[in-house]
Amino acid sequence: MNAKILPMRKSVGIIVLNSEDKVFVGKRKDNPVDNWQMPQGGVDLHEDYLTAAKRELLEETNIRNIKIIKEIGGIFEYELPKNLIGKIWKGKFRGQKQKWFIVKFLGSEDEIDLNTKQPEFIEWRWVDPEKLPEVIVSFKKNLYINLLKEIKKIIS
Question: How far apart are CA 112 and CA 118, in angstroms?
Answer without folding.
Answer: 15
